[in-house]
């Protein structure tokens, strides 16, 4: 599987309501060099003992934490104790929340990922919630994250190259990735292809439905890894 290993990583978003289906996918994709992302649908369905099955895997908990600082920092510690490798927090939670979350993450082998602007949102949506347009909002939130001690951020691939011009050392995670010949998911707006995301400098691509809903998910994941390796 070494030819599939690239410096740009691939995370699979296991977005299903069915715990058994998730555990089967985890097993099916088990020998591929992937990060496994568990999000809001699957987290409440997991059993404590499931975490034992994850010990040899890189687990990305996409909890998108956003609450008062003490709540968030204790939640970060709980996921750190479970052995998660990556965990998301919303940058709009503010400086104190982010600083305390980062402090909690630092005591574990846990990479905190600050979510800037969801890839489902457009400029018009941001105006509705009182934010500036996308690029300005992403830059402002990442500056806040950097000033709070974070160095890894979630954004769309469309913002990566401009962010890396300002902060060359930041780690960029990009969802909203469409695969060859596939139209974009209906709830995603700021999307990119694998090639576009890798060329922009994305460090981790997140793909969910395009792989898990493919007729042969193992082959779709392998093909995505080959594409990443060929343009890295
Ligand atoms: O199925 P699809 O590839 O669109 O899944 C994208 C995944 O990335 C979902 O699990 C979603 O929660 C997550 N995500 C996102 N936008 C962000 C952060 C995470 O789409 N800004």
Overview of the structural elements:
The protein is an alpha/beta fold. The chain has a single domain (9-231), classed as Aldolase class I (TIM Barrel, Alpha-Beta Barrel), CATH 3.20.20.70. 41% of the residues lie in helices and 18% in strands. It contains ten helices and ten strands. The protein has helices at residues 19-28, 50-53, 69-82, 95-106, 123-128, 134-147, 157-166, 194-200, 209-212, 217-231; strands at residues 9-13, 35-38, 58-65, 86-90, 111-115, 152-154, 171-174, 177-178, 192-193, 204-207. Helix 3 runs parallel beside helix 4, helix 7 (157-166) packs parallel to helix 8 and helix 8 (194-200) packs parallel to helix 10 (217-231). The longest helix has 15 residues, at 217-231. The protein binds cytidine-5'-monophosphate (C5P). Residues 13, 15, 39, 62, 115, 118-119, 154, 175-176, 185, 188, 206-210 line the site of cytidine-5'-monophosphate.
Which SSEs are present, and which pair or pack?
Elements: E1 9-13, H1 19-28, E2 35-38, H2 50-53, E3 58-65, H3 69-82, E4 86-90, H4 95-106, E5 111-115, H5 123-128, H6 134-147, E6 152-154, H7 157-166, E7 171-174, E8 177-178, E9 192-193, H8 194-200, E10 204-207, H9 209-212, H10 217-231
Parallel strand pairs: 1-2, 1-10, 2-3, 3-4, 4-5, 5-6, 6-7, 7-10, 8-9
The protein binds cytidine-5'-monophosphate (C5P).
Using brief descriptors, characterize the structure shown:
alpha/beta, binds cytidine-5'-monophosphate
